[in-house]
Design brief:
The structure holds 3 protein chains of 3 kinds.
Chain A: E1 5-8, H1 9-19, E2 24-27, H2 35-46, E3 50-53, H3 57-69, E4 74-78, H4 80-96, E5 100-106, H5 122-126, E6 137-140, H6 144-161, E7 164-170, H7 171-175, E8 177-180, E9 208-209, H8 218-236, E10 240-243, E11 250-253, H9 256-271, E12 276-281, E13 283-285, H10 289-295, E14 301-306, H11 312-320, E15 326-330, H12 339-349
Parallel strand pairs in A: 2-3, 2-4, 4-5, 5-7, 6-7, 11-12, 11-14, 14-15
Antiparallel strand pairs in A: 1-8, 6-13, 10-12
Helix pairs in contact in A: 1-2, 1-6, 3-4, 9-12, 10-11
Chain B: E1 6-14, H1 19-32, E2 36-41, E3 51-59, E4 73-76, H2 79-85, E5 94-98, E6 112-116, H3 118-124, H4 131-142, H5 148-158, H6 167-180
Helix pairs in contact in B: 1-4, 1-5, 3-4, 4-6, 5-6
Chain C: H1 25-39, E1 45-49, E2 64-67, H2 73-83, E3 88-94, H3 95-101, H4 103-112, E4 117-122, H5 152-155, H6 161-166, E5 171-178, H7 182-200, E6 206-212, H8 216-219, H9 223-237, E7 241-244
Parallel strand pairs in C: 1-2, 1-3, 3-4, 4-6, 5-6
Antiparallel strand pairs in C: 5-7
Helix pairs in contact in C: 1-7, 2-4, 3-4
The chains are: A alpha/beta, B alpha/beta, C alpha/beta.
Bound molecules: thiamine diphosphate.
Chain lengths: 351, 182, 245
């Protein structure tokens, strides 16, 4: 393990992607993720790899599509409005089963919104986002270190399951500077069969990368194969962190930056003798529904805390399935919940 | 450091006063000396219109929440940020005021005021741009967790190479700031 | 003595296409396949099929191919060429695909001077969706969304993409051809070959061959009349010849 250095989330994510074997980066400027393309424009040529500033987010995701179709490790990054534009391409990546990594440093919405931190793209990130029946893995870190670490996982998971993987942060995680060792999780890329990739056509019939399926049941069968893949992902790739949940009367569920605010509030609550725990989803999709269900009941309560007006809370309610009451606290539009407000909500629930 | 502690700091001034460098050097010094630290620069719209501010959290335990809403210490280098952030300073907190630019009366008696003519100290050093470093020296001198010399030792990590001829001036400014409140 | 009249190129499957009688797409496919064989580049060519009537081009061209979103082929080609600079990358696009929904992508691929080839099949209509107006639809031409004929005051004039693109420094070779008669078909093939050869030789820059191509179905003409229409009418708005390079 090498020494830690100070880096902002954007730069750490970018360098980790390079260390993870990124071949090509395509992006378009948008705050608060600009340090990613800026960093890439400097570092990728140094490594003899590809950087293109595209004319739009639509073009960027399609450049990713082209590079990925040849078997390259390709990535793009953006923030909320730009991620909306990328949805067309993400749907195509899912349909054509192409591995790719997309980073979303979420900002306030809807519309142009603002450039402040937000978690209001949760629905979009966990429900497929674009058209068609698909999901993609969505990974959410809560520190600069974890954001960097997740990049290695993102590329491996994209290759393993042949599909887009989204890494999700927000304006704070993007801009915040923390000590980080971007090499901490460095490892050789997983080796997967890429015989589907385009190019070097020799001693085989042509490869077609495609999301168009005509004819009776052909598309349905393709969809069923995708669904089977998604089920494997649900069964094997769920990740979360549970802290002090075993004896808890109240479990706060929060991801990303909200989990750090929540954990400050929980520490204060514990000092007051309140039994509160933190459940932090790391995979937003697949959502850790089973582990949450296992904690539900037994007189326990849940409180979801988000930088949104209640998106992840729906997944918590589905997981709990009536076995426990589920409360919600959130602020959005660029505003961030305070520790005090979360603490107040915790106390209110345990009165 | 045996006692566990956490300190939340807001640093504010106008663009060009080196607020971000101040924050970054403080963060680097904390990291190099085995403290946990987060540093959050204000970005985008907030940095336009001439104001600049950042939040630094440091302490013995991992920093859960990097956001600073009610700081333990407030460093303000210009009037606008004085007025904006003073009401947010925690009761019992410290404010470091640049009296070269701020002559406002302080209407709170639940806080510790550390007043120093920060710009004038820098000008006396023939380096008016080092006011940020003077402020850092004052901050470190008024707290016991990191020494001003530790910050001097980290300067070369945060100053871009092309400014390395300025290392000494900046170190002098840090130490002068510290002495000014001894 | 036997004379070989017709040989199927290796890069073309021996299949009946889904194109209407008199459609130009099939001819364009054949010219591309012949070129790939003649230049012996099948092992290092990747084609991009658009959204449009030629969406199934990968069923006919016996090479590695990718099917992409409507209008995005030049962006996809960019991604490919950048990671596979030794490959010949071509985007096959219709006029709705290239000049309407994909206008940003084509402009910027040319603007960056991407070392790719675009085969632009201009039939002045949206074929696949049933004959709606395209940016290239001729003044007065009837389409299902301009039932009284294209009115330039309301719908604008036909967009001359080859001319527009040719003023960009990044575009180094642009030629407009037509699939009407054997002589023009030979010229079209020569243009495609020249474009691919440039990529092969590592010549920098974006290149495009625009092909005026008949759509008898939505022009409501016989195949013969459709060809005549290109020669007599379309070439007035879209003059043939080399615009650049
Ligand atoms: C985003 C999107 N919008 C619209 C369509 C529907 N669509 C399919 S083909 C087409 C027009 C294609 O016309 P052109 O590019 O001229 O090709 P042609 O069919 O004439 O060969 C349209 C609008 C689509 N597939 N995707």
């Amino acid at each position: 393990m090498s020494e830690k250095v100070l880096m902002c989330g954007n730069e750490a994510v970018a360098e980790a992607a390079i260390q993870a074997g990124l071949d090509a980066f395509f992006g378009y400027p948008i705050t608060p993720q600009n340090e990613i393309p800026e960093y890439m424009s400097r570092r990728m040529p140094e490594e003899g790899r590809v950087f293109v500033q595209s004319e739009s987010e639509i073009a960027a995701i399609n450049m990713v599509y082209g590079a990925a179709a040849t078997g390259a490790r390709a990535m793009t990054s953006s923030s909320s409005p730009g991620i909306s534009l990328k949805q067309e391409g993400i749907s195509y990546l899912a349909g054509s089963q192409l591995p790719a990594v997309i980073v979303n440093m979420m900002r306030g919405g809807p519309g142009l919104g603002n450039i402040e931190p937000s978690q209001s793209d949760y629905f979009q990130a966990t429900r497929g986002g674009g058209h068609g029946d698909y999901y993609h893995i969505a990974l959410a870190g809560n520190s600069v270190q974890e954001m960097a670490d997740l990049m290695y996982d993102a590329f491996d998971l994209a290759d393993k399951y042949r599909g887009p993987v989204m890494v999700i942060g927000d304006g704070i995680l993007a801009q915040m500077i923390e000590p980080v060792d971007v090499f901490a999780k460095k490892r050789p890329p997983i080796q997967t069969d890429k015989s589907w990739a385009l190019g070097n056509l020799k001693d085989r019939s042509p490869n077609i990368v495609n999301s168009l399926f005509l004819g009776d049941n052909v598309l349905e069968n393709h969809n069923l194969r995708l669904q089977a893949k998604y089920q494997i992902i649900r069964d094997t790739e769920v990740r979360f962190e549970a802290t002090d949940t075993e004896d808890a009367d109240l479990i706060v569920v929060a991801y990303g930056i909200a989990s750090r605010i929540a954990s400050s509030a929980i520490r204060k609550a514990r000092k007051k003798g309140l039994k509160v725990g933190l459940f932090r989803p790391i995979t937003l999709w697949p959502f850790p529904a089973k582990p949450i269900a296992a904690l539900a009941g037994q007189g326990r309560k849940f409180l979801a805390v988000e930088l949104s007006y209640g998106q992840m809370v729906e997944d918590v309610r589905l997981a709990v399935n009536g076995a426990s009451p589920v409360d919600f606290y959130g602020r959005a539009g660029g505003s961030v919940p305070t520790v005090e407000a979360v603490l107040e909500k915790i106390e209110e629930n345990l009165k | 450091m045996t006692n566990s502690f956490q300190e939340k700091i807001t640093i504010a001034g106008f663009g060009g006063q080196g607020i971000m460098l101040l924050g970054k050097l403080l963060a680097q010094t904390a990291m190099k000396n085995n403290l946990n630290v987060t540093y959050m620069p204000a970005y985008g719209a907030e940095v336009r219109g001439g104001t600049a501010n950042c939040m630094v959290c440091l302490g013995t335990d991992p920093i859960a929440n990097p956001m600073v809403i009610n700081p333990d210490t407030l460093i303000v280098l210009n009037k606008a940020s004085f007025s904006k952030f003073l009401p947010k300073l925690k009761s019992g907190g410290k404010i470091i005021v640049n009296t070269s630019k701020i002559d406002n009366a302080i209407d709170r008696d639940d806080i510790e005021v550390i007043a120093a003519p920060i710009d004038d100290i820098a000008i006396a050093l023939d380096s008016p741009k080092s006011a940020n470093m003077v402020a850092l020296g004052i901050f470190l001198q008024s707290h016991s967790f990191l020494s001003p010399q530790m910050a001097c030792d980290c300067l070369c990590d945060v100053l871009a190479k092309r400014y390395h001829s300025m290392l000494q001036v900046n170190a002098d400014a840090i130490l002068k700031g510290a002495q000014s409140i001894q | 003595m036997s004379t070989l009249v017709y040989e199927k190129p290796e890069s073309l499957y021996d299949r009946k296409t889904h194109y209407c009688p008199g459609c130009g797409h099939g001819v364009a496919h054949r010219l591309i396949a012949e070129t790939i064989d003649e230049l012996d580049i099948r092992h290092k060519t990747i084609g991009i099929a658009p959204v449009g009537c030629s969406v199934l081009a990968y069923n006919y061209l016996n090479i590695d191919m990718v099917e992409v979103a409507h209008g995005r082929a030049p962006a996809v080609a960019t991604g490919m060429k950048r990671v596979k600079p030794d490959h010949i990358i071509f985007a096959y696009q219709g006029d709705g695909d290239l000049a309407s929904i994909g206008c940003a992508e084509i402009m910027h691929a040319a603007h960056r001077g991407e070392d790719i080839t675009v085969i632009f099949v201009n039939n002045a209509i949206y074929g696949m969706t049933g004959g709606q107006m395209a940016p290239t639809t001729m003044v007065g031409q009837i389409a299902s969304t301009c039932p009284n004929g294209r009115d330039p005051l309301k719908e604008g004039y036909p967009m001359q993409m080859a001319e527009i693109l040719s003023i960009m420094p990044g575009a180094t070779y642009i030629e407009r051809c037509a699939i009407t008669d054997p002589a023009n078909i030979r010229k079209t093939k020569k243009a495609i070959k020249h474009a691919f050869q440039r990529q092969l030789d590592g010549e920098n820059g974006f290149n495009m061959v625009e092909i005026l191509s008949p759509c008898p179905t939505y022009w409501r003409m016989s195949p013969v009349d459709a060809k005549k229409h290109i020669t007599e009418q379309m070439t007035k708005t879209f003059p043939l010849g080399k615009l650049k390079g």
